[in-house]
Design a protein that fits this description.
single chain; 19 helices; elongated; Multidrug efflux transporter AcrB transmembrane fold; Alpha-Beta Plaits; 4-stranded antiparallel β-sheet; alpha+beta
């Protein structure tokens, strides 16, 4: 270490132009790549793609469809007017034509089961949109009495209708989900002029999360830099000296984000904290070097170059140790099972190293090349003191005296505080409430809470049940077990709406018996269930059961987002 320092530091001081040119060359290359850094808001980034749970979830999506959903909710005093229904029908058709959209379901295109004379017919709930008030009222009564529609496609009071847009199951869902949501918003702005509408769903939430994350980076990074600039100006007292650490932290941040790009990582809701971390750490190294040099301004007994070399050499090893320990702390995160946390640990750890290297290469080269420290010292000596510096020094001296005079009480207080903290650590809850990422005034927050209140909720808990033999879920005994599970789920306060293949079977049985509510139940025999399935023919149940009737899923719509 000592030998390397004795070669490394003199080289920088001897060839500052080469160091500056090399650094700026790398900065230019880095800047070329930074605009290509991607933003990732999908929850998929939190999972190890090789883990059994993730692999099984991908299998589930291939069978039952993507869990990427966009929900458009329209609100009016009465949804069942000719104008509203035509608007919903038009929106449904337009949304279905969009790229990456797999399926669109609304009250105007959903299938319905009608029964009479011991038969049932499956057809569109709304084959045509009536204009007569009586027919519209009849449609309304049928819609709000159908368990498959209520809280899925229509609210209980018929004031809110949902259009469910299911996206295709593809890799990198965040990129095409953004395109879908953008197109949906354009269509809504074009067609919905005087109606209230709300846009939410898992894909929409991810879209707005990315949008707000971009806005935060654009807003807060310049703000952080401005705050650092002002503090440095008060601390160092001269604009020339402020520019030194300011340039250093900017270069360190650029190199760190370049490394993030080269690793193939994206900015997500964990790695988004990397820029402020690097800014804070790199400014510390720069300030250490500059303030140490300024404090020794009265000890210039040798040539300025020799003195400058000694200043850097004296600080090199202490700063190296602090950077090393800080970097190790971040690198320890790379053992996490959560991918974004691993990425944070790796990039932040390397960023600490970049901050150290830039501070002890680029910063000394700038000082030497432009003789900034000498110029500053001449300015500095003309002032008897800096107000800010004197106040800080005076405050720190008082703190030191206080610690010396009251060491025992401070020690006792610290022990008590640590004991209370250890007790409090046990009360910490680990949870994620994605809705709380947004301010309550944002459109996505308002839309999500509205849909929770009027419909079944935005997010779903999908329960996958796979039997070891075919036609298992055609057995009434198996369906009764499924029914008991649904009853248990219904007892959970956070569950707002449950849908499964069982609801279709019950609805078919009721329709077969002339819409008699007494027969909204599980049929008594396997043979009858098999006949119902054969006669039904529509593909609605494909979202809940596979073709072998061996694998089913229960969809529980949630009104709570806290884990």
């Amino acid at each position: 270490m000592e030998k390397g320092r004795n070669i490394f530091i003199p080289f920088i001081v001897k060839y500052p132009s080469l160091v500056i040119a090399s650094t700026l060359f790398l900065v230019v290359i880095s800047l070329f790549f930074l605009p290509h850094i991607k933003l990732a808001s999908s929850v998929d980034v939190f999972f190890d793609r090789e883990s059994p749970s993730y692999v099984k979830f991908q299998e589930w999506k291939r069978q039952f469809g993507s869990d990427e959903i966009v929900i458009v909710a329209l609100y009016d005093n009465d949804i069942f007017t000719e104008e509203n229904l035509r608007l919903i029908d038009n929106l449904t058709s337009r949304f279905l034509s969009l790229p990456y959209v797999d399926k669109v379901t609304s009250i105007t295109n959903v299938n319905d089961i009608n029964g009479y004379n011991d038969i049932f017919v499956v057809k569109k709930f709304m084959e045509e949109i009536p204009s007569q008030r009586e027919k519209l009222e009849k449609l309304k009564r049928r819609a709000i009495s159908n368990p498959l529609y209520v809280k899925n496609l229509i609210s209980k009071d018929a004031t809110t209708a949902a259009i469910m847009i299911q996206l295709e199951d593809k890799e990198n869902s965040g990129s095409y989900a953004k395109e879908v949501v953008d197109n949906v918003r354009k269509i809504l702005n074009e067609l919905v002029k005087d109606k209230k509408y709300y846009l939410s769903g898992s894909s929409a939430i991810e879209y707005f999360f990315t949008l707000y994350m971009q806005d935060d980076l654009k807003r807060f990074l310049p703000l952080i830099l401005l705050i650092i600039f002002v503090i440095l100006l008060f601390s160092l007292g001269d604009i020339k000296m402020v520019c030194l650490p300011f340039v250093t932290i900017t270069v360190s941040l650029i190199f760190t984000m370049w490394f993030l790009y080269l690793c193939g990582f994206a900015i997500n809701n964990v790695t988004t904290i990397i820029p402020p971390i690097i800014l804070a750490i790199s400014v510390c190294d720069s300030i250490h070097l500059l303030t140490e040099s300024l404090q020794k301004k009265g000890e210039l007994t040798r040539s300025s170059e020799e003195d400058f070399l000694k200043r850097i050499s004296d600080l090199f090893f202490p700063c190296f140790l602090t950077s090393l320990t800080t970097g190790i702390g971040f690198f320890s995160l790379t053992v996490s099972k959560v991918s974004p946390v691993r990425e944070l640990g790796l990039v932040a750890g390397v960023g600490v190293f970049f901050a150290f290297v830039v501070t002890f290469t680029f910063l000394p080269a700038l000082v030497k090349k432009f003789a900034l420290l000498n110029k500053y010292n001449s300015i500095f000596r003309k002032k008897e003191s800096l107000f800010f510096k004197d106040k800080i020094d005076s405050f720190l001296i008082k703190i030191g005296r206080f610690n010396e005079n009251f060491s025992i009480p401070i020690l006792i207080f610290t022990i008590i505080l640590v004991s209370l903290s250890l007790w409090g650590v046990r009360k910490i809850k680990v949870e994620t409430n994605i809705l709380e990422f947004f301010a309550k005034s944002t459109p996505i927050y308002k839309a999500t809470t509205f849909i929770d209140k009027k419909l079944g909720g935005v997010y779903s808990l999908n329960i996958s049940l796979k039997a070891d033999k075919e036609d298992y879920f055609k057995d009434p005994v198996s369906l009764k077990r499924l029914e008991r599970l649904q009853e248990f789920l219904s007892s959970i306060p956070e569950v707002n709406k449950i849908t499964s293949v069982l609801d279709y079977i019950k609805e078919i049985n009721k329709s077969f018996h002339n819409e008699d509510e007494k027969f909204y139940k599980i049929p008594s025999s396997r043979k009858l269930i098999a006949q119902y399935i054969l006669l039904y023919g529509a593909d609605d149940m494909d979202d809940f059961i596979d073709s072998k009737w061996q694998w089913t899923t229960i969809r529980a719509r949630l009104k709570e987002y806290s884990t």
